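pinning this so it doesn't scroll away 📌
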Amino acid sequence: MPVRQRIRRVACRLIAAVVLSIAGATPVAVADPAAGAPESDGSHIVSMRPGVGRQLLVTVYSTAMAAPVELEVYTAQDISRPAPVLYLLNGASGGSEGSNWADQTDVVSFFADKQVNIVIPIGGSGSYFTDWHTDDPVLGRQRWATFLTRELPPLIDTTFHGTGANAIAGISMAATSVFQLALTAPGLYRALGSYSGCIRTSDPQGQAMVAAVVGRWKGNPLNMWGPPQDPTWTANDPYLHAQDLHHTTLYISTGTGQPGPLDTLDQTRGDAGKLVGQLTSGALLEAITSVCTLQLRDRLRELNIPATFEIRPSGTHSWGYWQQDLHNSWPLFEAALDR
């Protein structure tokens, strides 16, 4: 490993230890970052800043995207011991406008006593967290699959004392992406959680859904996977490649769009506008994902692939239910990460 790369990785570990010490945590021991580390492609941690408690605000330079990517990292309970990593992907907004795991759920308190590093990338609105064919005039260069599966994991493991065991979960748009990422990098994720998503992307309905999501953020789906007949659409359709998921622990959930116990003013803290959104667009979206999820359930049964499905009799496309899904899927993730 080049001397410059070794120095950079040691520096990252030292910075993390100092930042965590300032935040009141016990600093992690600095191991030899060259041990077992792959050759660098130029991606590196640019900065780390302390947040609240064990939160670190991390900036990583992605060579694939030729741009910095922001992360929220919540370190494991005992940072003196190795810990696996759970990657949590935000939905179509990429975490903007307050629509992210940290702001909308109890992810911080829920994992406070758990021996796992939580990594939440910020950004990627309308991107499907995939590698695009062409740079988009509005959304720019999108190489999220390369970043998330090749560039980021070794940096996280080296800096935060990772065990090499990973799980990934995502909501809405990202509930599709987690399958695509797992298929892109076989063996990288031991478990995945897909909350309220549609994984079919290459049939007419799937292509229409993808186009609507990308277009909502002013992107051009032709720049993502090309025209509808381009084979990249089928290559990125997890429904067509589900047979390759045999060795991954799967948790898949959806509501039906009918108002449920979390669709009340109490649950939205008196925010009437938010509740109206849940009961209108949130109801429609969840009704669609319900159909998609039932199709996926039938497909996995045909292939004899084990999976845990949580199909609620009610519930909209909203954060309260995704928080429940995270709680319910964690025991499965934990078992997979520890095996």
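📌 and the second one:
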Amino acid sequence: MTMTAPRVQAAEESSHTNRVLIKSWLTTASQKEARQVAVNEMITLHIDLATQTWFTAGTRIGKITDPGLMTSQRSLKAVNYTERQQGTTWSHQSWEIPVFVTQSGQYVIQPIPVTVEVSLSPGQNQTATLMTSELRFSASLPSPALTEQRPWFAASKASLDQAWQQSADTLRAGDSIKRQITLKAESTLAALLPNPSQPLFDDAYQTYVSPSELQDSYNRGMYSASRTEQETYVLQGGGEIHFPAIEVQWWDSQNQQLNTLTLEGKTFTVKHTLQSWLKFYAPWLIALLVLLTLALFAFQLAKRYFARHPLPSRYLLWRAVRHQDWAQCRQLIYQRLYEKTQLSTLADFSQDEQWVADTQRLMSEQIDSPLVWSVWRQMTRRAKVQSQYQVLLPLRQLARRYPHP
């Protein structure tokens, strides 16, 4: 696009051999004429000035004040070169201004005033103000996988690195771990880089976040940006502490594809100090102390109770079986039989063949602990069934006496 402003036309009228031309256009890393761009992608506004003589003073470029546009017009540097066309030598000044948009939509860069001073003849200079052309473009999210809720950025190149630092080779409670994460990218601004590290908070450590370090640089026509985050974790207790992996999505504006930068997580083993051990296990120690206190209290109550009452027959049988005091075992079984059934002989309790065989072994030398417990359980179980029958017997008699109509 080539246009000549009114002020330039006036200069041409005064001297046909001196003309000033201006061209302006937009490009991206993948487009020579940018009309559809990606959100957060760097758009380069090119302003090219040309004269048949030479520039005699610094060029002043007006500010881009359009709403929704972010620009970096500090420390702009021109590229000067000459070009010969149809036998005439032209002196050129080429300016590049980075422009960014952070929201989808339609955008317009209004004409920008550019003031130049050129030589008309030896000792005579001419100042002219030219206007760039109106430039229109649209911006949208470059991929359906990207959302404005999840942090991402656009760049032509990107890298993500991390460095760990321990306050001691063998970590103990009270020591610290530093994690430094650096995100670097080209063709973007540091202000557009997301925070790659989301601060972690856990009872195992206290987190201290240092201020972010943002840096922009310009070298040989390339804009570079970096963002450094540093977090310090002061360890509160022992055990294993795991820091998760970090992923950052970015849109490759040069190759037009979505990529993911990944940092691996790391696990540290931390040893306890006495103080941290007591603090960490305090709930368990308190619970154990309470249980021991309750157990001691219950033991004292049981001791006082059984000092005035006989010991349970099951406990006495267990003790007799343990010491293989078979005479004592037989005596306890007969006592149990009398208490439950008012019977004095085992033969009167049941005529079942298995019962008869077990009781005969019980009275012989073949007695052993499984047999003793088997007879005890059979006697207890059958006595329970008989007692239930005796409870239900009156109800059955009433049912026979008063049948249901």
